[in-house]
Amino acid sequence: MEPTVVIGVDSSTQSTKALAVRVDTGEVLARARSPHTVSEGGRRETDPEVWWQALRTTLEALSAHPASAISIGGQQHGLVTLDASGEALRPALLWNDVRSAPQAEALVARFGAKHWAERFGSVPGASFTVAKWAWLRENEPAVAAATAGVRLPHDFLTERLTGQAVTDRGDVSGTGWWASDTETYDDAVLTTVGLDEALLPRVLAPGAPAGTTLPGLPLPPGIPVASGTGDNAAAALGLGLTPGRSALSLGTSGTVYTPSTNRPTDPTGTVAGFAGAHGGWLPLACTLNCTQAVDKIAGLLSLSREAVEPNRTITLLPFLDGERTPNLPLASGTLTGLRHDTTPGHILQAAYDGATYTLLAALDLVLAVDDRPSDEPLLLIGGGARGTAWRQTVRRLSGRAVQIPDADDLVALGAAAQAAALLTGEQPTDIAARWGTSAGPVYDPIERDEAALESLRAALGTT
Ligand SMILES: Nc1ncnc2c1ncn2[C@@H]1O[C@H](COP(=O)(O)OP(=O)(O)O)[C@@H](O)[C@H]1O
Ligand SMILES: O=C(CO)[C@@H](O)[C@H](O)COP(=O)(O)O
């Protein structure tokens, strides 16, 4: 008998990754990837049609494994504006587009950071959808006026599969217009930014299906489609994370998170108080400059990614895109401590250190939400987790044990677990645990490099 198969998708910043997964064992039967294009210069935009074509391409590549259910995980926060026929009115404004920083600042000033933290769980920065919508209204009022539907990236794709305008609790918690204390859209914020609630998708109850597949897609028609969620919430499901078990993701963004039972309410804005896709909370900190920033610096130095040398004097803050943690959207990169004996390898190691430090500093705040200090190994995921220099840097600056799951594409696996949950009635985290998705080598703690940490604290003015 043919095994039951589900498809899990990660539509992230740089690419779409899709997996065909056996429901009984979690075996990945086939995988496909299709790249995205992101605009450069001061803009970070992608045409949602690029995501849709990438999704179709990957689904066609998996068509030898007919699926019984599917789910889409996607990059968080992006603003997709649709006309009445469901076509995008302009490219999506992505999470790492910092042009919306002044609008975020004005929104924080309007309601106060304390109110944002207590009612929404997060103090919005430039990444949050609400700031992007406010930017659009100020800078492209004709587009805002013509908008008939506002979606997050994974909502847009789910709607293309099902015809349903829906979202999930996890990703809607990164918009800035969904209040985490009442789990409803917030009238005061929507009024302030001139957005009619009728333009927003319906928020599904945890575990509720989005609908079934429409005919004419590279999928069997009529199969159930799960709610999907943001990529970090999907990876949390894909790893089977439970409170106190934390993950650090090294992708275009750097993120660090752990599920919590307490609702996060950090008024400093360092910890975003996201909701878990299937219940609970997902306190998270995110940086804008991670693998791409370090790759860029390696490229400038004409070095391979791994050509690091132990660094003693250089401090590099790799804020090439501005930064979100710390909240410095207009910052640029800085390099200090150059000497005659400085080598390119020293500078590259300093770039890894700078990109890793703020994430590790935020991990303590993330774990503090449940007041549950944990010495369980930190799970390292995302494209960067494949690199030795990244692994060593995290070990040296954290002093923690680190575990590298053998499984790739944890976001897509989490989406697959959501899809499987529709068929089996289990919780996605239980499915992921059954599939053994977090299994992989554990690296023992090594002594923390206090000198490097001290230099970074000094450079950031946090000593
Ligand atoms: N072997 C490797 N070593 C280090 N970094 C890697 C390796 N392979 C891929 N990467 C990094 O992974 C990044 C992509 O990671 P990914 O998690 O797929 O990003 P995203 O989800 O943001 O699209 C690239 O920017 C690249 O720098
Ligand atoms: O903005 C956030 C989290 O709040 C980012 O983590 C995005 O969700 C993009 O993720 P990647 O494409 O880097 O995985």
Automatic annotation (TrEMBL):
Transmembrane segments: none annotated. One of its GO terms (molecular function) is D-xylulokinase activity. InterPro entries: ATPase_NBD, Carb_kinase_FGGY, Carb_kinase_FGGY_CS, FGGY_C, FGGY_Carb_Kinase, FGGY_N, Xylulokinase. Coiled coil: none annotated. Its EC number is 2.7.1.17. SUPFAM superfamilies: Actin-like ATPase domain (SSF53067). Keywords: ATP-binding, Carbohydrate metabolism, Kinase, Nucleotide-binding, Transferase, Xylose metabolism. The keyword Transcription does not apply. It catalyses: D-xylulose + ATP = D-xylulose 5-phosphate + ADP + H(+). Signal peptide: none annotated. The keyword Repeat does not apply. Pfam families: FGGY_C, FGGY_N. Residues 248-421 form the Carbohydrate kinase FGGY C-terminal domain. Belongs to the FGGY kinase family. NCBIfam families: XylB. This is Xylulose kinase. It comes from Streptomyces fildesensis.
